[in-house]
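note to self — DONT lose this again. spent like an hour looking for the file last time. sequence + predicted structure for the chain T wanted, 419 res
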Amino acid sequence: MSADGSRIVFASGNPKAIYTIKTDGTELTEVFDYAGFRPGCPCITPFIDISADGSTIIWTDSEGEIFVADGTGGGLLRIATDIPRPLFGDTEPPDIRLTPRITASGGQIYFVHSGHTAEVAGGYVINADGTGLGKLFDYLDMAQLFNSDPDLYNRNNIFYSNLDIDATGSRMVFGTRSFQPEGNIVTFAGGLTRVTEFTNESSIENSNQIMLTPDGQTIVAYKPDPLSAVSLNFDGSEEQVILSDVNLNGVFFSRASEDGTQILASARDAHLPVTMVKTDGSGRLDLALLSTCAPDPFRRSGIGPTSSLSGDAGRFAFKTEPFQAPQQIWIADIDPVLTGDVPAFAGITVDPSVLVSGVVVTSTFTVDTIAGAGGIDRVCGEPFGDGECRALSLSRAGSAGGVAVCEGGTNGELVGGVG
C-alpha cells in the first residue's frame, strides 16, 4: 500500500500478473500479465513496490529487467535490462533475488544484483525513467569489509533475507550469508558497514526479516538466542527487543510508519494477528486476526509481506488466502483519537464488496477501539461467509482460542473488553 493509503499494488503467482486497486475498492486494474511476455519460470510471485503517493509502481520476477508504470498501469517502461561487465566489455541481465525498492518520490529505484562475477555483483541505483544506472558497491567491497577472500564469491548467498531503503534512498540495509552461515546485516550510506548477525532458523522464511524505517534511523530484524524481533539504530547501537513473547516463526514485517515509530507485523497463520509494533519496544496493538474452524485457514502466498501500513499509521491493509476460497484484500482505518486510558470496545463495521468473482474479494472495514495503556486482549466478531465457520478477531494473545466465536457452527456473540 502507498504511504498515503490511497492505492495498493499486488501480484499473483499463478497466473503470474500485477494488479493495482484504490483502497476504496475501485479501479481494479490488471497492469501486466507475464503469460503474454515471458511465460513459465522464474516460478515466483513477482517482487513489487509502490511510491509514497501511489503514482509509480515497480515489479520484477527476478530475472531480466525491472518494470515501471504509473499507478494505473500506464507509461510502462522496461528498465535495468543490461548490467555492465567492464572486465569483459559486455553486459549481463540482472539477477534480482531481493525486492527492489523505489524512493518515496518515485524518482529512483535501488536493487541488488547477484552477478556472475564478484566485481559485477552488488548494489545498484537507476532512475525510474531508465536512465542513470550506477553501481553503489560490489562484492569486492563486501569482502574487504569482512576481511574475506574475494575469490570465495558465491552468487547464491551474497544477498539474503531482504533489501530496504529509507524514503530518499540515501540509506540501505540488506542481509548477506557470504561470510557466515547465520548471516549478517549490512548497511550502506556512501559506504558499507557491518551491523550485526541474525538467525537462520529453518522454519523462518528468508524474506522481509530486515527492515529500515523510512526516516532511515531504525533497523528492525530478527536476533537469535533467544529468538526475538529487535530494533536498533542504523549504526547497530541501542538494540531494543520489540517482540519476544509470541511465536515468531513465519512472522513478516512490512514498511514502517514515516516517522519510524511503528511497524506492522503479520503471520502466515493464526498464531499472531496483524499487529502494529512500536519500534522503541514500548508495546504493540493487535489489529486483526482472521481465523476459521479449519486448520491453517489463511496461508501466506508469494514473496513479500502480506500486510502494509500507511505512512501516518492510520490505515493498514492485508491479504488473506482463505481455505478453498478466493484471495481477499482487506483495508482498515485506525482511529487514534479513540485511544484512551481504559480498554473498551467502540465498534466495528464491515462492508464486503466482491470486485471480481474468483479473482479478488475485497472487504473494507473500520475498527474503532479504545486501547488503553495495556492494549486490548480480545475483540471478536460473529462468523461470516455462506455458513463457513469464520471469525474476525482482535487478539492480544495472538491465539484464535479463548473466546467462543465459533460454537457448533452457529453465530457467536460480539465480545469486547478484557477476555
